[in-house]
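Task: sequence in, structure out. Protein: malate dehydrogenase.
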Amino acid sequence: MLVPDKFVILHLLDIKQAAESLNGIRMEMTDAAFPLLKGLVATTDVVEACKDVNIAVMLGGYPRKEITLRKDMLSTSVSIYKAQALALEEHDVADCKVTI
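Result:
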C-alpha cells in the first residue's frame, strides 16, 4: 500500500469511553520509535482524525452481542462509518483512498 521509505502520520480514532486506552496505544507507538512513523494523532474527535488524511483504513464498528440481530449491528456500524465518511469528505485530501 505504501512504498518502503515513505514517512507516515497515523490518525487513530476511537470512542470517548476508550480514550485512556487510545492514549496508551499512542504512547506505545511513540516509544517503539518506528523509523517511518513521522507523527501520530490519537483522538476521539472524528473531524480531527479525518483532517488531511491520504489513506483511511477503517477498522471496527459496533460489536455484535449474542442477543443483537445482525441487521441491527450492521445498521449501527453503518451510522458509525457514515459519520467518518462525511468527515473524510469534508477534511481529507482530494485523492484520499478509503478501505473498510
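Residues 91 and 97 are 13 Å apart (CA to CA).
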